[in-house]
Amino acid sequence: MAKVFRAKMLAAIEAAGICLPPCYPREWVAHCKSVGSGEKALIYLGRYLYRGVIREQDILACENGRVSFRYRNAETGKSEKRSLTGAEFLWLILQHVLPKGFRRARNFGFLHANCKRLIALLHLLLKFDPNRFKPPRKERPPMLCSCCGAEMAIVRTRIRPTSSAVVAVVPRIGVAL
Fold first, then answer.
1. Dihedral of CA 36/42/43/49: which sign?
2. What are the structural domain ranges in the chain?
3. Pairwise CA distance, residues 142 & 148, whole Å
4. 65-84 in b/e burial notation, b at 16+ Cβ within 10 A?
5. Residue 166 pLDDT greater than 50, yes or no
6. pTM value?
């Protein structure tokens, strides 16, 4: 069935006069199963793809075989516009389809990233200590004084807003600090 789907898809693309990019995959994996008329599956998949890849309002125009859309540049963080042929645009969209066996995870409710306070409250109510699962901290090797060779102790640290931490270190000579 995957071969039939691929052949029909390529025939439809050629009939529409769209040229495929030279780097499109020669072998496809198609998982086909009967879903009735397919209307509900199409609505679900359309909503799922748009939410994960591009919003409908970010597609600005679809004219003369070209699709113009708006996207956020990851490097600059600014919104930019781009125009591609229909096949190139579809290729970008299809790169976001997960391989067989994978699924996109979405966290809702208290598992959402914005619910850190609620997670902390749940830890408190359930008497759960997440720190017990952290690896133990490595002990620092002792710092030795370059003059006398005695072990040094950190007395005070000061963090300046513009630079890294400045540490005041004094030799430990049996005097309680």
1. positive
2. 2-94
3. 14
4. eebebeeeeeeeeeeeeeeb
5. no
6. 0.35
